[in-house]
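forwarding from the other thread:

> can someone predict this with S-adenosylmethionine?

sure thing
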Amino acid sequence: MAMINLKLLKEEAERIGVELDETALNNFDMLAQMLVDWNGRINLTAITDPLGIVYKHFADSLTAFAAVDIPQGASFVDVGTGGGFPGMPLLIARPDLNGVLLDSTKKKLMFVDYCLNKLNLNNQGKTLHMRAEEAGIKLELRNHFDFSISRAVANLRDLSEYCLPLTKVGGTFVALKGAKAQEEIEEAKSAIKILGGEIVDVKQLFLSDMGERNIVVIKKSSPTPPKYPRASAKIAKEPLGMPKK
Ligand code: SAM
């Protein structure tokens, strides 16, 4: 018997504009079981009830597809993936995508690796144990991904400094945000411009049981200047685009 309500997940995904086939639905159910099982051993998430998993982890991760038309075979990096969100749901829903699931916490990535293996997604998805600011200065990762995506990692200004260097020129940075998105956008506007980005859309959705969600879509229209991203201490001390204290 399935652990989560698969009919509900299918309907929620359809509302977002995503068609989930039987393989995808079974994979989501296996992922829910593994999440609850591993969460007893390592702290991955506070959300472990079946309904919460459907709405707050799975459907919320899929909202990216409501805001951006992601081409077949696109590559992405999920910055601060934690227990694999939104990266794993994206790969389950769209096995044509290739994703790097990056996080600075090794033990969470052990869970993600385990799941990618069990779900036979290890050709499409790879974990990377690294800080985003370090990845952004590596030649093989900088300007590399068709899109970058992130949820619940940092404010939009700092997150832009993590994500835009990793995104190709012409590519997209997708930030999954909550009700305070507009405030974050105001605070991040000049940083996004400095980093070569341009906000092209903010898609507002109301997800059952989760309230307001805002998907901020940022196009990378020019290369990020070489001095970004800066080291994490500098990002914290001198927020980009803000007047110096
Ligand atoms: N994105 C997941 C989600 O929505 O469930 C996890 C969110 S969790 C609150 C934040 C994660 O971001 C943590 O796993 C943390 O290790 C990671 N993180 C924070 N700053 C980071 C950075 N600069 N580089 C890489 N990972 C980072």
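The mean pLDDT is 96. thats all i got for now
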